[in-house]
Amino acid sequence: MDTTSVNYPTSLISGNTFSESAQLSIRNVTKVFPGKQDWLSKISHQTSKDFVAIENITLDIEPNTFVTIIGPSGCGKSTLLNMIAGLSSVTAGEILLNGVPITGSGPDRGMVFQNYALMPWMTVEGNIRFAVETVYPKMSAQSIQRTIKEHIQLVGLTGAEKKHPHQLSGGMRQRVGIARALAINPQILLMDEPFGALDALTRGFLQDEIERIWEQERKTVIMITHSIEEALLLSDRIIMMTRGPAARVDEILEVPFPRPRNRELLDQHPAYHDLKVEMESHLFRETRAVEEARIRI
Ligand SMILES: Nc1ncnc2c1ncn2[C@@H]1O[C@H](COP(=O)(O)OP(=O)(O)OP(=O)(O)O)[C@@H](O)[C@H]1O
Ligand SMILES: [Mg+2]
Question: Atom 20, ligand 1: which residue's CA is nearest?
Fold first, then answer.
């Protein structure tokens, strides 16, 4: 891409400059998954080397921004998100939330999973209640009920409160996942391919819902996606990762489209075509390199 045509925010560029106003600072983060070298692995010929999934990623994320992460399959997107969520530790470097290192999961970060991760024996209401009660054990019964109601309404599930996950469509299940994550009032919403398992139509509906909810709540969102159109519709910034092993941030795109966004009008924006082509060529280049490496093996 012609870099003169895109205004990259310096605070977001991978490097050693840090923004004072960053809500989340990822500093020189590396993740190594240890190989198996124990005696049992040796005698069963199952040894493996250490695997450097991501290497030396530095990134600052400002409050109230919608950030998407895109990159070839297996490059380390979920690894990075899980470290931000505190579900996985960093091997080197640190991740700071409001200047404080993240050492584990916490209610300041809400997570939405691709496979919904709902508790099947609980109703819609029960799933949300469980999250709220766990995070706020001292909250009054009245406030809990109000929070549940508000969030069921926010994601458009009013009427389905007493249903169990098996009685819901995939789209409805993911609405519960989103309501549950937002009901704990996190500072940052983390979403790992939240619409990956949905059909195109439901996906489109939910993208519009997320856009509407984001307009209303303006929370910082970090979302992984494989869809270029989805990233362009929703993001303020798009982080493009290189292939792994030792994946890095290759480039950060700023998405200049005004909000609220309308999917029908988006491609009429003068920057749309250039951004789309840039993302396509990045993904094509990185994925092709992964395939070539596989063929050489
Ligand atoms: N627990 C683990 N132990 C060893 N290697 C792992 C572990 N988890 C992930 N990996 C490896 O780290 C790399 C990054 O995995 P990750 O799941 O983060 O990729 P991803 O970008 O989210 O992929 P996808 O787009 O397919 O979801 C992969 O090569 C994966 O095999
Ligand atoms: Mg993943």
Answer: 74
Give the model's pLDDT for residue 209: 87
Domain ranges of the chain: 3-99+223-296
Nearest ligand, measured from the Cα of 241 = 1
Assign domain 3-99+223-296 one CATH number from 3.40.50, 3.30.2010, 1.10.20, 3.10.20: 3.40.50
Please, what is the average pLDDT of the chain?
90
Q: Is 164 exposed, middle or buried (0-12, 13-18, 19+ CB in 10 A)?
A: middle
Query: Whose structure tokens read 């070539």?
Result: 292
Nearest Cα residue to atom 31 of ligand 1: 74
Q: Is the pLDDT of residue 51 over 50?
A: yes
Neighbours of ion ligand 2 (CB under 5 A): 78
Residue with CA closest to ligand 1 atom 7: 33
What are the pLDDT digits (tens) for 150-173?
A: 999 999 999 999 999 999 999 999
**pLDDT surpassing 70 at residue 18:** no
User: pTM for the full model?
Assistant: 0.91
- Element housing 114 (H / E): none
Q: Report strand pairing: 66-70 vs 220-224.
A: parallel
Per DSSP bridges, beta strands 109-112 and 100-101 are: unpaired
The 3-state DSSP class for residue 125 equals helix
Nearest CA owner, ligand 1 atom 28: 74
**Which of 30, 32, 33 to mutate to test ligand 1, by most ligand atoms within 8 A of the CB atom?**
33
Predicted confidence band at 184 (pLDDT cuts at 50, 70, 90)? very high
* CA–centroid distance, residue 196 to ligand 1 (Å): 16
